[in-house]
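Rotation project, supervised by the postdoc (A.L.). Task for the rotation student: set up a whole-complex structure prediction and record inputs and outputs verbatim in this book. Inputs entered:
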Amino acid sequence: MTSIRDVARLAGVSPSTVSRVMNQTANVNEEKKQKVLWAIQETGFVPNELARSLYKKNSKIIGVIVPSIDNPFFGELARVIEEEAFLNGYRLTLCSSNHNREKEKANIQMLTRLKAEGIILMTNDETLQEEIEKCNLPIVALDRQIASGNGVSYIHADHYKGSRLAMKHLLECGCKNIVKLREPQVYSSGRQRFAGYVSVCKEYGIPVQYIDCQYDYEDGFRVAEQVLLKYPDVDGILANNDMVAIAVYKVLKKRGYRVPEDVQLIGFDNIAFSHMILQELTTIEQPIKEMGKLAVKAIMEYGQAGKIEQEQVLDVTLIKRETTKERKGLS
Amino acid sequence: MTSIRDVARLAGVSPSTVSRVMNQTANVNEEKKQKVLWAIQETGFVPNELARSLYKKNSKIIGVIVPSIDNPFFGELARVIEEEAFLNGYRLTLCSSNHNREKEKANIQMLTRLKAEGIILMTNDETLQEEIEKCNLPIVALDRQIASGNGVSYIHADHYKGSRLAMKHLLECGCKNIVKLREPQVYSSGRQRFAGYVSVCKEYGIPVQYIDCQYDYEDGFRVAEQVLLKYPDVDGILANNDMVAIAVYKVLKKRGYRVPEDVQLIGFDNIAFSHMILQELTTIEQPIKEMGKLAVKAIMEYGQAGKIEQEQVLDVTLIKRETTKERKGLS
DNA sequence: TTGAAAGCGATACCAT
DNA sequence: ATGGTATCGCTTTCAA
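Outputs recorded:
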């Protein structure tokens, strides 16, 4: 393992000079510079980031904790974050918590010891207060709220508005008997989405009817059957996210329902797969790209300025596709 | 930032002793031990991994370079790798190369400087020889072959066999006019898959007919149209992977073909989505879990033993689902 | 059992 | 412009 000293020796200069050449941190006599450059080539020297980080007290590491990648939404988010981090000279240490509280704790610990410059949390579990407060790294909660925001920044889409948009769209499509798949209420995203739905019901004097459903495909599959059983006359389903909507779609079709003629269907997230299934899914788009970028930016700013924005709510948009159909004169 | 010295001072012992307590690396007088433990609690001390790594010359970092996460196959692989790495006390630095040669080079460089203990490469570009040879980290190529294997380990599924399995299955299903979507031949996986197909053709005296297709959904969509145009009598399609098969399925249905009655369809990879679409996709399963585990193990073994297995080929299996249908007496 | 001290590899201040 | 040297935080000989 060749070090800066070896290079210095070979070039006949001091380590300081080698450092200066490498980092262009000061002027160096042209001749010596060339010698150093040559010596670096000759030895195949590669600076040790660990040592550099140790001295400079910045690791250029951003920790990312995702709940699990069953849901491509998090995968897409991770990808955006990686891209943005790379552009800014940061690297990304990826941890997946698998909905496992212990593993998540271990991950936060690990990132603290690694001297990560910040953590982007996408985990949906809200029972992690102490861990989060204890580690005093800047934390950005993405798509999730953390109760007593102690130096914790919070970036998320406008779930409330998204749900309202979706619900109103279903109404414009002429649905008379809408069923809501209710998000797990332990997540802030879930509470907000459900509240949006309820608010529209109140406005229009529509009865609130829902069935609880987790955010994943398997549960969507199970719950879809229940919906048809409990509400045989359903003509519109407001799914809690795209993965669930995809499962619901499958059940509907298997049971012989026509979509959107018999039952209209709308998702949430606009993951890539929502337009790959047979009938492209009408859904609410979260600005994934922007969310990822803002998260990285928040952490970088913290490193520089020492402060961090408290909460940022991003806009969502309705993406009309093939699982819903507007009918004239019915809004 | 509290350091080991602060703890030592507070506990009234030397830094060495604190270190010994933390790492249980030697016996320490019980009383002092308790004092140290207390001091750690009191100060909220967290050891600095950077410093530790620097001294111990091992970073416990595994670099993972994926081509892009459009294809969930890589996402699933990354997830398995993370899990296995975590179990063994390693962390994962994730890089996505986006099919960009420059970025990939930069990533390898970066991981070298970071003193990663190894790199798992899933990138499908084969023009990276020099970079790979220059950095002398242990490298594991996953799902991809690297020409002059210089300390490079190679783990991949048996693409050749997989293709043969798929082709034979289509024949057993009674297909008379099969079209192969040919994988990009710059990838070893592509070459092997195509060779498998050709070998079966030869065996059965069937004409080789194919159209070139990238590994992604968009290209699958485009190529599917071409297939129908060029081979209107097609009754079996051997897609190059699941993402493409999903695209093909969509085009077939949109054009009014019945699957599998009119056209049978088979994919490759068995990504999670292959069973989420309306008709579950018949496909060839790659042992994703095993591949990820082996990759991590290979790197760890290198760290310990200094050697690394040269090539490991894993078995694949046919997953019969709903886009093909066996007909009796036709094999 | 314990502490002092010498690194690990790079940086930056302080002289020169 | 350049070199010597202390330093980042931790680990590990080597003595005591």
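Student's summary: Chain B has three domains: 4-47, 61-157+288-314, 159-286.
Supervisor addendum: Residues 13-17, 20, 26-29, 32, 51, 53-57 of chain B lie near DNA strand C (CB under 10 Å from a C1').
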